[in-house]
UniProtKB/TrEMBL annotation:
Residues 737-943 form the Peptidase M13 C-terminal domain. Its cofactor is Zn(2+). It comes from Kwoniella newhampshirensis. It comes from the Eukaryota. This is Endothelin-converting enzyme. Residues 1-32, 282-305, 438-467 are annotated as: Disordered. GO terms for biological process: protein processing. Residues 1-11 have a biased composition (Polar residues). Belongs to the peptidase M13 family. GO terms for cellular component: plasma membrane. Residues 444-467 have a biased composition (Basic and acidic residues). Keywords: Hydrolase, Membrane, Metal-binding, Metalloprotease, Protease, Transmembrane, Transmembrane helix, Zinc.
Amino acid sequence: MAQPRASTDQENAPLLDNGNDGPSASSSSSPFKKMFSPSRPLSFFEKVLGALAVLLLLLMSIFVGLFAGAEGMLKKERQKTGKVEWKTEYRTHTRTATATKTSLATTTVSAVPTGKPEPKVCLTPECVTLSASIIQSLNTSVDPCDDFYEFATGGWAATHSIPADKGIYGAFNEVADNNKKIILRVLDAIPSGKPKKDASADELNLAKLKAVYTSCIDTDTLNEIGRKPLIALTDHVVELFGPFDLNPAPSSDLIEETQEWQGTYDETYRVSDHLLASGERATSLQKTKKSGHGPSDASDLETPTVDLAELDESSVGEDRQKKITKTLAWLHSRGVDALVNFAIEGDAGGEDSQVQSLWLYQASGGLPSKEYYEEAPILDLYQSVVSGILTDVAQHTSIRREKTKRGITHDIENLEGLDELEALIESIDDLVEEAAWPWPWPSDGDKDGEDSPGKDHDDTKDEPVEKRMEKLAGKVVKFERDLIRAGADPEYLFNPHYSYNPYPTEKVSKALPFLSIPAYLSSYAIRVFPANITVTYPPYLKSITRLIEETPDYVLSGYFVTRLALSYAGPLGPKTTIRQEHRRLQEVLRGIKRGTEENREDLCLSYVDDTVGYIAGREFVREAFSPEAKKEGEHIIRSIVKAFSDKLPHISWMDEESAKAAQKKAESLIPKVGYPLFPNTTHAESVQSWYSRLDVKTDDFFGTVFNSILLEESRTWMSLGRRRNRESWEMYPQTVNAYYSPPDGEIVFPAGILQPPFYSQAWPAHLRYGAFGAVAAHELTHAFDNTGSQYDDKGRLRDWWTQKTVKNFEERAQCLSKQYSKYYVLDEQGKKVYVNGNLTNGEDIGDSGLAQAFLAWKNSADTSDPERLPGLDFSEEQLFFLGFARVWAQLTRPATAVSRVRTDPHSPPYWRATGTLRNLDAFHKAFNCKSGSTMNPAKKDQCELW
C-alpha cells in the first residue's frame, strides 16, 4: 500500500517575527527598544519589574515553541496512522478494586485522504464476535499458500479436543451441540403437568414435546417397566405366525453349519477397519439414496435382466402364505424390516417423478453390511446376542402362559399379606428354572394336543430354555446370513439408474409365492392399487423364495421375533436384558469401549426428533431463525443459481444444446430454506394436527415410540399413487445438514445449518457467501454432478445431454477423481491411506461449486463500500475464503479417519477445503499464491469442471 503524501497544512512560518521584513519595520514603536533604550534613567524597582517581564516572555516563548513542535508531530502522526482518539479503559481485577487507565488509540482514517479510501470496519456486536472467532481459529505462523487449512483452522484445532465417546469432532458437531442447547432451553422452560382443557395449540404441542423427553430421560421408570411392552408385541407375532420355542428343539442339518463360527469370539476381538468401512459405507449409501448422491464408482455395473415368469416355478401352501403375509404386514407397518422391504418413493423413471410409487428392496439384517456376515467372530457374537434375546422372550412369555394355565391370576387377586406374595414370586421363579411346560400352550380345547408345537417330539426329554434358544439362534443367524448373501451390494442397490426395474404388480406377486401382495397391500387400506412395482434387485426374488421353502416355520418365527426385538430394544430401560444384549452388540460393531455409558441426553433428544420433530423444529425456528434470515438465505441461493445459469453458455466443453438444457434445469430448481410448510411449522395448529393421533404419556415412552412409527408408516402408505406434497421435507428444521433431491428438483437448507459458522444475517456479505453460499452452491452443483446429471429438469431419470457433452463431462470428472485419489489420511502407524477418488467424485464436484458462490458474491457485492472486520487485516476476498475453510474445521482419530476414507462419499475435511481451493484461480489471486506453490499447483495439475 502506498504511503500517504505529506500533509499540506503544516505550520512553515516562523513563530517569532524579527521586525526586518517590510517597509514599516523601521518606523514601528517596539517595546523592547523602549525598554532597553529608555528616555530617562530607570529606578531600581522599574529595573526589577523589567527583568521579571523579560523572564516571563522567555518562558512563554519556550512553552509556545514546545506546543508548536508537539502539534507538528501530531499532525505528522495523523498523516501516517490517522486521527488520535482518547479513551478510558476499565480493567476489573480478581479482587473488588477497579483500575482506571487512560490510553491512546488510533484508527486508519487519514486526515487528508488521497487515492482509494480505506474500507470501513464493521463494529457491530455480531461482527466483533465473528472477528474474534476467526482470529482464534487462525494459525498465522503458517503460510496460507503452503497449507491454507492449517492457516485457517489451526488455532481452532489447538483449542479443541475429541470427546471420549466420539471418533470425530468438528464445526458441524459444534453447531449441532448449540442447536441441542436451544432445544434443551425450550424443554426446561415448559411447565410440568398436563395442559388445561382450554389450552392453546402451542401449549398442547409443548406438553407433548416435554412428555416425550421426560419419559425418555426417566430411566428408573423404564427399568421398572422392563420388558413388558416388548413381550406384548412378541406375543402377537407368535399368535400370528406360530411358536419359535419347541421343546425339545428339533435337530437339523442347519445347526451343523453354525459350528464354523462358534467359539471364535472373545472380549479381545476388535472390528477391523475394513469391516467398519463396509458398514459405514452401506449406511452412508442408504442415507444418500433419497438425496440422489449415489456411488460414483458403479458405472461398470450391468443391469440384471430377469424374466419374472421364470421365477413362478415353486408354490407355497395357502395357509403358510396367509401366515407370512399377515406377519409381514404387521411387522412392516411397525417399521420392522424383515424378508423384503417395501418403500414408497417418487417414480423417477416415469413421466411424473412426483407420483409416489411402490418399490421393493431386499431386507437388511442386524449387522451393518454383507461383509460382517463373513466374519466368524462377529457371527459368534451375534448368535450369542440373538440367543440371549430369544431366551429372555421365551422365559417371560412362558411365565405368563404358565400363570394362566394354573390360575395364577386368581391367586394374585386373593393375595393376603407380604408372605403370600413372596411365596407366589418364589413359585414363579421355580417355574422359570424348570421350564417344565412347552410354550406356547395349546388351546384349552386341544385335548389331544394335535396342534401342539411339540407334537412330533418327545416332551419328556426337556431341555433347558437356554440350550433350546442357543440352537435356535444358530439357525436364525444362518438364515439371516443366507438372506443377506442373496441381496445386491450397496453400490448396486442405491445406484439410481441400475436399481430402477419396474415390473407389473401381478408378475411380482407370482414371483413371490410365499407373499400375497394383494392381501398385503389391502391391510394398509391404500386408495390406489399400484400397477407396477419397482424391484431394485430382481434376482433377490428367486433367492428368497428358495430360502423360505427350505426354512422351518419355527426358525422363521425366531427370525421375526429377533428382528422385532432388535428394532425396539432402544426405547426399553437400559437395565432390561434385551436392551443390554443390543448394547453389547453395538459396542463391538461400532468400536465403543466396553461398558461405556451412553449419553442419555443425546439419545433422548434424538428420540424427540424422531417422534415430535416438527414441534421441536417449530420451537427452534422461533428461538434461532427469523423471517428475514429466511428471505436472505433464499436470495443468496437464487443469486448463486443465476450466476451459474449465466455462466453455462460460456463453458467451453458444453455444446449449445446441452447448455440450454442445463440452464432450464438450473432455473427450475426449487430452493427451500428454514422450515417446511407441510406441516406448516409457522402455525401451531398445523403442527398440532400433524401429531393429533399421537398419544404421548409421561409413563409410557415405549408406547410413544411405537405409536409414532405406526403413525409415520400409515402416512407413508397413504401417499401411494398420489403426487407428493411439494411443501414437505425430508429433514426437520433443527437439522444441521442440507440436501438436493433429484426426483423432486429441490435444494433444501434447514434452519439448523443457517447458524454460525455457516450463516448470520448480521455478517458482511463476503462471509455469508463464503460459508453458507458454499453450502448452497454445493447442493446446486449436485444437480449437475455424475448422479444428478442423470435427472432432467422435471426430475425424471433421462439422458438429456448430448453424447459429446457427456464425454467431455466424464473427462473432467475423471480429472477430479485422479486428483483426489492422490490425497490421503494417516493411520495410527502414520502410514498413508489414500482417498478413493471415484467414491468421492460426486461430492468433490459439489464442493467445486464454491466458484459459483464466489461469482455470485462478486455480482451482488457493493464494491464501492467495502467492509472489513475489526482486528483482521484481510481483504474481503480473503475473508470469503477464510469463511469457507473454517466450516471444515475438524479433529479426527486415525482409526476413524481410515474408516471414513474407505466409506464416506465425502472427501476428508482437510481435502474438501484445500483440494477445492487448489483448483480455484480466484483464491490464488486473493492470497497472491505463486504458481507452483502448494495451494496453486501447475495448471496441468488443476481441474476445472463448472
